[in-house]
Amino acid sequence: MLSYRHAFHAGNYADVFKHLCQVLLLNKLTEKAKPLCYVDTHSAAGLYDLGTDMANKTAEYSDGIDKLLQRSGQYPEITDYLALISQFRDKDLYPGSPAIAAHLLREQDKLILMELHNNEVENLRANMGRDPRVAIHHRDGFEGTLAIAPPEPKRGMVLIDPPYEQAREYQDVVNFIQKLHKKWPVGVVALWYPLLAEKRNKAPAMLDALAKVQPASLFIAECWVKPQPQELGMYGSGMAFINLPWQVDQQIEQLLPILTSLLGQTGAGYRTEWLIEPA
Ligand code: SAM
């Protein structure tokens, strides 16, 4: 059963980090006029009203996007993302990854959005369905993406952003990427993952398994807002990339210290590593 609802978490520090990376990738990919395809395996609702009870139950956005908007002025590294977000935040909204992609992509590009949750896919249709560039699939994002891979056009990226509610999702991600990379070797892959308390953290084993798949390249960036707890909770998140476009690693490296200092508490930090260097 699917119980995760992204509206509780929209605009939190993990969303901010993921969406900053998404903006860097899409900005780089749209430098060339050639059309491209954006695939979201786990789209959720696409757009969030920050005035709702759901968003305000724990108001995670106030320690995420709102903190960044208040204290960001002097950082050109995050200006593009903040300019985009401000247009939504002014209307009490926060864009999810589908709305961010729709905003940055051009007329010649395509968006393929997968979502499995019955209610959430209706929200996604209501928020994104009128855009002629968008195809919405109510199906499992791993199965669905493999079924259409390689997409047309072949140039493009996939964002993989599962809720990790079930332990098996870590292995599902690795199996999926292994198959996808075979079918779509030129596709840029961006995977989000949580950094959890010491006793529950499955990210290191997942990254080891991913490296063993031997993709063309593998770059990771992690960012945490507090020290790792022993027992419970998420303290940060990571992104793993295959076929990361040239120089985007440096752009990510520039934004991490800014993000950590704007959003982090004592004990916050970040790291990047090429687990497999591009040939
Ligand atoms: N990518 C979105 C963003 O950044 O705005 C957030 C995605 S949210 C973390 C994860 C979503 O995946 C949830 O809406 C959940 O219903 C959906 N989901 C869970 N398992 C799925 C599956 N196997 N295939 C597609 N969607 C799934």
Automatic annotation (TrEMBL):
Catalyzes what?
A: adenosine(2030) in 23S rRNA + S-adenosyl-L-methionine = N(6)-methyladenosine(2030) in 23S rRNA + S-adenosyl-L-homocysteine + H(+)
Which residues catalyse the reaction? 161
The UniProt keyword set, sorted, is:
Methyltransferase, RNA-binding, rRNA processing, S-adenosyl-L-methionine, Transferase
A GO molecular-function annotation? 23S rRNA (adenine(2030)-N(6))-methyltransferase activity
- InterPro entries given for it? RlmJ, SAM-dependent_MTases_sf
Which residue numbers mark the site Interaction with substrate rRNA? 4
Q: What are the EC numbers?
A: 2.1.1.266
Concerning Gene3D superfamilies, the annotation shows: Vaccinia Virus protein VP39 (3.40.50.150)
Note the Pfam families from the entry. Answer: RsmJ (PF04378)
**Ligand binding (S-adenosyl-L-methionine):** 19, 42, 97, 115, 140-141, 161
The UniProt subunit note reads as follows: Monomer.
Report the protein's function. Answer: Specifically methylates the adenine in position 2030 of 23S rRNA.
Question: Record's family?
Answer: Belongs to the RlmJ family.
Please give the name of this protein: Ribosomal RNA large subunit methyltransferase J
